[in-house]
Amino acid sequence: MRNVYIETYGCQMNQADSGIVGKVLVEHGFSMVDSDKEADVILINTCAVRDNAEKRIHNRVHDLQALKKKKPYLKIGILGCMAERLKESLVKEDKVDIVAGPDSYRKIPELISQSFAVDVILSDKETYEDIIPMELNTDGISAFISIMRGCENFCSYCVVPYTRGRERSRSAESVVEQAKHLFDLGYRDITLLGQNVNSYLYKAGNKKINFAQLIVMVAQIDPKLRVRFATSHPKDISEELIDSIAKYDNICKYIHLPVQSGSDRMLKLMNRKYSLEDYKEKIRMIRNKIPDCSLSTDVIAGFCSETLEDHQATLDIMSWVGYDSAYMFKYSERPGTLAAKKYKDDISEEEKVRRLNEIIALQRDLSLKSNQKDVGKVFEVLVEGESKRDSAKYFGRTSQNKVVVFDKGSQEKGNYVNVRIESCTSATLLGSIC
Ligand code: 5AD
Ligand code: SF4
Fold first, then answer.
1. In terms of DSSP bridges, do strands 148-149 and 168-169 run parallel, antiparallel, or are they unpaired?
2. Are 166 and 124 a contacting pair, CB within 8 Å?
3. If you measure from the C-alpha of residue 49 to the centroid of ligand 2, how many angstroms do you get, rounded to a whole number?
4. Which of 398, 403, 318 is nearest to 361 (CA)?
């Protein structure tokens, strides 16, 4: 019962959490294996943000039950947001052996040794800051560090405040120590993670460190270490943070600033706490202080009572900003959220799909236009690995988070190279080292 395989779904935060689970297990004498076939215990780290994410997990568990028929000693565990949301019902209905919520990862060795075990108690203190996570499925170049946990924004559509609990920040020292450790191991691109990094606040005695200060502390480790962050809530992104990004070359010129909708009426129903004008003002400030900054967003199509005018307003703000990329979703009602309790999910599935497709088509256009503007320019690119399509080429990213594919030359993974962009698609820049 010692070989464990961890499968991770959902966000980057889950990726980082799986590393924590891995480390806890290894410290208790377990071994991590690379495939479900070799495993005695399969842990699935899950996401509950949308219904289709959950459906996928139910199907995966169903498939794993077949493996369990051949290997009756196999244990299956559900971790993360879906564990927190569905609790014991996963044992009853999906026949899993272990259910562990996001604040129960220290107890996993103990849960594995019990016959059926559920631990979904949320904490307002747990940050796992003393655990340096294992790097699972890593390319050896980019890594994530979660700097805080939980969310208290209560956007009306979102299940996260219920599954991840109260907001709490890790100590700045522990973040810097982890970043230094990763740099020494050869990592060159680190993303600081939180549901809303702008509300990071670490208090020790009379000392207070906010996110704008923390990111500078990490950037100062070495100019060759790139620092990124996700996610920023538009209501909280500060001028001080934008100034920090502008000042340090190694803080990446890329901000993910989810707008969700372009309609003030929708933003109010979503409980986002900013108006479209507030959002535009933040974008103007970013553009003014960091002219080469790229921007991405999240948008939701077909939220409760969304009219065609509201939908058009979303398309309009996307064009106004000219996002470089976007994560686009159709609204999925989540039980227990404010929207599920107060509003009717009244846009038909067909209409949600139609609106989403319009949004996706527009974004493809915007991404292509943004990439076309880069043709002829030279960018510093961090070499991250071999191109999947062509082993004679490398891929890497620019500070703006755009993927660039180029001939290998005599370079190695982890090097910085200057690449002149010669052509592009809507997803990729193509160029040559110069
Ligand atoms: N339905 C659709 N999209 C959602 N998101 C969060 N909750 C929902 C939901 N119920 C999206 C938001 C958020 C991203 C992480 O997921 O756009 O920014
Ligand atoms: Fe959900 Fe809003 Fe928190 Fe993001 S900020 S996790 S959308 S509640």
1. antiparallel
2. yes
3. 10
4. 318
Contact yes or no for 255/217 (Cβ under 8 A):
no
Residue 424: strand pairing partners: 429
Rounded CA gap, 70 and 404, in Å?
Answer: 45
Give residues with Cβ within 8 angstroms of 248, minimum separation 6: 216, 219, 227
State pLDDT tens for residues 122-162: 999 999 999 999 999 899 999 999 999 999 999 999 999 99
* Atom of ligand 2 at shortest range from CA of 151: 3
Q: What sign does the dihedral 126-129-130-134 (CA atoms) show?
A: positive
The alpha helices in 260-407, defined as continuous H runs, are 264-269, 276-289, 308-321, 338-342, 349-374
pLDDT for 20-59, tens place per residue?
A: 999 999 999 999 999 999 999 999 999 999 999 999 999 9
- For residue 44, what are the contacts with CB-CB under 8 A and spacing of at least 6? 6, 7, 9, 57, 60, 61, 76, 77, 78, 79
Question: Atom of ligand 2 at shortest distance to CA of 161?
Answer: 8
* Sign of the alpha-carbon torsion through 156, 159, 164, 170: negative
H helix or E strand, kind and range, residue 191:
strand 189-193
Query: Which two three-digit tokens encode residue 78?
Result: 């559900």
Task: Tell me the pairing of strands 41-46 and 31-32.
Answer: unpaired
417 HSE (CA, 13 A, CB side): 26
Q: Is the peptide bond before 127 cis (omega within 30 degrees of 0)?
A: no
Q: State the pTM of this model.
A: 0.96
Residue type, 229: F
Ligand 2 centroid from CA 4, angstroms: 31
